[in-house]
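Annotated sample (chain length 333).
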Amino acid sequence: MQVRERIEETERQVLSPRAALAAETRGRDRPEEPCSIRTEYQRDRDRIIHCKSFRRLKHKTQVFLAPEGDHYRTRLTHTMEVAQVSRTAARALMLNEDLTEAIALGHDLGHTPFGHIGEDALSKYLPGKFKHNEQSLRVVDLLEYDGRGLNLTREVRDGILNHTGEGSPATIEGQIVCLADRIAYINHDIDDALRAGILKPEDLPAEPVRELGLYPGQRIDSLVHDLVENSMDSDTISLSSGAWAFMEELRDFLFDRVYIGSVAKAETEKAVRVLQTLGDYYLEHTELLPPEYRPRDDSELEVKICDYVAGMTDRYALMKYEQLFLPRSWMVE
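Output written by the structure step:
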């Protein structure tokens, strides 16, 4: 028996009947020969970790633009925290940990520079709103590997697309990532805001802090325990009504005190200007787009520009802006 087949058999014997078994995946758009030592979901996880878009997450904003300090979250550290929360919950519920991890690691691959500010800025070029979950799917389907994409399984692609927004994941593992994403960002964004001096511990809503804990780790632990206990005998992943209410109160507090109108967003207009100025420039100078982003015809021009600009890191976008629009010093021999 091959290693992969042994792992698949272990999944059948050990995992919950609700779990998505790797041996029963709905497959890939382009069929491939199975790996002898890894299941299909393990292969997806590895492909995501090794792709260029994943590496770029380390230089993309979570909340704070170009933070001065080594301890603020980036889009990469957020992704790792979501993966950790997701794996803990999946293991406790006897679900497919590999599938959950692959979805979590890929869920934000399509995020723009400067966080959600970038989504709003790039919406200018599309008939609808730029949505990072849809762009994440576009990254793994079309943009990675010189246009070939990663050819991920349908379960992982579904989880990436539906980790946020109006859709609902087809697997219970995808549902875990939806909640893990929210649990992670609410608590680590509070932590970063405290570190930045935007908030003080006494500013936090009293009841959620009393019930869930003062520190991020305590609140995450409380919420994950609640998730596991509330989802143990259910076909859906959910929190108890009380825990959900406390988490939403913290989220509303963040929007009021951090996400909107705080010093963390003081540079918002500048960030929007950078991205839209770059977008406008490439609309007029398509010949300067990298070859893989050049449109075949005018109908896909705006989409290709969004692909290119959305894939930039914060610092690369600032470098391109400086290179294209700021005067350079003259050097006289």
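Annotation: The chain has a mean pLDDT of 93.
Annotation: The chain has 15 helices and no strands.
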